[in-house]
Please model this.
Amino acid sequence: MEVLWTGLRSMMSRDLKLTCKTSVWMFPIYGMAALFGPMSRHLKGKNFMLRGGIYTLCIFAAEFTTGSILKKYHVCPWDYSGQKANVRGLINLSYTPLWFGAGLFFERMLNQKEDAV
Model:
């Protein structure tokens, strides 16, 4: 998703190659998404607003925690400091709808995989 996001954002700078950018530091952070499986099973049948809200909070918590650790060593690959809705430059609250949707999307992917088994 990050590669898609940064590739599409490159269009804003008229980069028709749709160059994207990420960091190796992101691999273990994205690996934490494995926790969505057990979480989605626990939340199954709950209201979608509650589920999406919990996923959003978990994503923000992971982003803030991992970003704080990486920032301590000056290797954090993201910095939202220049954006209005940032919290210590580590999370951007304007991304709330995106993380809400991403959490429900991950849940759907996980549930389809389980239903197929």
